[in-house]
Write a structure and sequence with these properties.
Layout lengths: L2 H30 L10 H10 L6 E4 L5 H8 L5 E5 L2 H14 L4 E4 L13 E6 L10 H11 E12 L27 E3 L16 E3 L4 H10 L2 E9 L20 E8 L2
Parallel strand pairs: 1-2, 1-4, 2-3, 4-5
Antiparallel strand pairs: 5-9, 6-7, 8-9
Helix pairs in contact: 1-4, 5-6
Length: about 260
């Protein structure tokens, strides 16, 4: 399949998932985003963004989902905030949350590989968080997009689940450390049992395609696109809501990571 075909299929699956997610905690989110100090980001993400500096900066979030994290960054003092996502339905939720929060974040429905050139060099910071990289077929091409969106010496921040977890079946404590897949897997994961990562309800969904990227894929793509590494950290806590059972194990796996990089002048 072509990259655009994977994208089109995943767009259908995520549009299906939007009303499922909405039923869970959206009413509570509607109330919370109205608070002037609303911030749904954890302390690690907040701390890294503060170190990079977001106040009065122009910020883009790629694969922004319903925009709650982008609104959080806006509340941290960012200037222009633009969220991009493939899903029409989640972009609509982002605009709804933004209106209720009375912020001026922008939300753009777009394949992240096809973000319009009008956004080139418009941002001081591009960030993405949990559940973004696994939907991207080509890491190098994706980070080329990040590079063109950034102004010279602009920053990239990634906070994601650790790619080693792609070796294991999620939500199966009985398997513990039994690998199911190669760390060097190249073929996509194909699923049809829904995208409810909150309550983990299974439902027959449109086919979705996920992609594994090694740390070398991610860091190497940064280097290739002149995004100089500024920090990299690994953590023993789960941010995916899929591998929480591994946090308490005596034998520890890395469950998440952060990466910051800066576009070379």
């Amino acid at each position: 399949m072509k990259r655009s075909e994977f994208t089109a299929a995943n767009r259908v699956a995520w549009n299906e998932a939007a009303p499922v997610h909405r039923k869970l905690k959206f009413d509570e989110l509607i109330k919370n985003v109205q608070k002037p100090d609303f911030n749904c980001l954890d302390q690690i993400a907040t701390s890294h963004l503060q170190q990079i500096g977001v106040k009065n900066k122009d910020v883009a979030q790629l694969c922004c989902n319903n925009g709650r994290e982008l609104i959080s960054v806006k509340n941290m003092g960012a200037k222009r905030c633009v969220g991009f996502d493939i899903s029409d339905a989640f972009i609509a939720q982002g605009r709804e949350l933004n209106a209720v929060a009375k912020r001026d974040c922008e939300f753009v429905q777009s394949d992240v590989y096809e973000i319009p050139e009008a956004f080139n060099q418009q941002f001081d910071l591009v960030f993405m968080t949990i559940g973004a990289l696994c939907w991207l077929p080509d890491m190098s091409q994706f980070l080329a997009v990040v590079a063109r969106l950034l102004r010279p010496e602009g920053s990239l921040f990634i906070y994601e689940m650790h790619p080693i977890l792609d070796m294991y079946e999620c939500n199966k404590p009985e398997d513990r450390f039994q690998p199911h897949y190669s760390y060097f897997r190249t073929e996509p994961f194909v699923e049809e049992d829904g995208l409810d990562y909150f309550s983990k309800t299974k439902y027959k969904s449109a086919t979705q395609y996920g992609f594994h990227h090694t740390l070398a894929d991610i860091i190497g793509a940064c280097i290739k696109n002149k995004l100089a590494l500024r920090s990299f950290d690994e953590y023993g806590h789960d941010i995916s809501n899929l591998f929480v059972y591994l946090e308490a194990e005596e034998i520890r796996l890395p469950l998440s990571f952060t990466l910051t990089a800066q576009l070379e002048p």
